[in-house]
Design brief:
By secondary structure, this protein is an alpha/beta fold. It has one domain: Rossmann fold, CATH 3.40.50. The protein has a seven-stranded parallel sheet, with helices on both faces. Helix 2 runs parallel beside helix 3 and helix 3 packs parallel to helix 4. The protein is globular and about 50 Å long. The protein starts with 15 loop residues before the first strand and ends in an 8-residue tail after the last strand.
């Protein structure tokens, strides 16, 4: 998906964007959409080099980032000559390891809540110098687990609920610096990570039955919401978390 839509076009020429976890999945969709709109895009991934991934990432500057490595977080921020938009997309869960075990609960909270905060904090001064129409933006990645309990990922769910609250708090604190802070909460989005889910009827069918639009989302569905929230069209929007879930979260 190139990040284009048949009745809509974004213009991000001159904008500098950082998309963490931009090497695949939702992050790749967001990065491609900004690139198609003319932005200069930096992406991160956990592997040492962009060439270590199967996809062609040559359109982007690539930086390695382990979410649990504070030194790498600061190094990524320091490596950016300027920044207008930070997309805190990267995340992970430790369901296989068992997040009910305190060690893995802690790691999940660190990866999905503390690390996005640390990166946003490290990038604050560069964002505050942005002259982007509508203001600089930070976008966090919430989740359906921000709203619903999921027994297998208590740390991930707690962190994603924290993203919603952190979005509100940073929006208040950073408005004076011209930085808007919002988040999106993806529903069930088609990606490599979701292939097993999509191919397993007993997992997929109850979700589709609950979803009013009766389909899974695509990365472009998230990218469209993100590009809107960072655009001048959303210049009066801050502190909000937008569910992009086909209506899943509104069903009682």
């Amino acid at each position: 998906m190139s990040g284009t839509w048949p009745n809509l076009q974004f213009d991000y020429r001159g904008a500098h964007v950082l998309v963490t976890g931009g090497s695949n999945g939702i992050g790749a969709g967001i990065a491609a959409a900004y690139r198609a709109a003319g932005a200069e895009v930096v992406i991160t991934g956990t592997r040492p080099r962009a060439a270590d991934y199967e996809g062609d990432l040559s359109a982007y500057r690539y930086l390695q980032l382990e979410l649990t490595d504070d030194a790498q977080i600061q190094a990524v921020a320091d490596a950016l000559p300027r920044l207008d938009i930070l997309i805190n997309n990267a995340g992970c869960n430790f369901a296989v390891r068992g997040e009910s075990i305190p060690e893995w609960f802690d790691k999940s909270v660190q990866a999905n809540l503390l690390s996005p905060y640390h990166l946003a904090h490290a990038c604050h001064d560069k964002l505050a110098r942005s002259a982007l129409p509508g203001g600089a933006s930070v976008i966090g990645m919430a989740s359906m687990t921000s709203y619903f309990g999921v027994e297998s990922v208590p740390g991930y769910g707690a962190a994603k609920a924290g993203i919603v609250q952190m979005t509100k708090t940073l929006a208040l604190a950073w408005a004076r610096d011209g930085i808007r802070v919002n988040a999106v909460a993806p529903g069930f989005i088609r990606s490599n990570m979701m292939q097993h889910f999509e191919a397993t009827p007993e997992m997929r069918d109850p979700v589709l039955a609950r979803t009013p639009l009766k389909r899974m989302g695509d990365p472009a569905d998230i990218a469209g919401a993100v590009l809107f929230l960072t655009s001048a069209a959303a210049s009066f929007v801050t502190g909000q978390t937008l569910p992009v879930d086909g209506g899943y979260s509104v069903v009682g």
